[in-house]
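Project standup — Tuesday

K.O.: blocked on the structure for the chain from last sprint. Re-posting the sequence here as requested.
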Amino acid sequence: STGGDTGGSDTGASDTGSWSSCVDTDDGAEDLFGTGCDYYEDWPFDCGLWDDAEFVAYSMCCVCGGGLSE
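H.V.: unblocked you, prediction finished:
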C-alpha cells in the first residue's frame, strides 16, 4: 500500500516551553464581547482585536504572549 506512517520515532517533540509556566492575568477582566483569555486559547489570531480599557490580550493572556511567567 502507499502512504501512511513511514515508521520513524514519534518521541522528539515534547513541549517543555513556557505554556506550563505561564498564568493568565485577566483576573475576570473581559474583552468587548465579554470573554477572557480562555477564548483566545481557541482563537489566538484574534489576540488584540477586541481589547478594551480593562482587557488587553497581549499583556494578559499567555497564548497571546502576555500573562505572568512563573
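K.O.: great, moving the ticket to review. The chain has a mean pLDDT of 85. The two ends are 49 Å apart (CA to CA).
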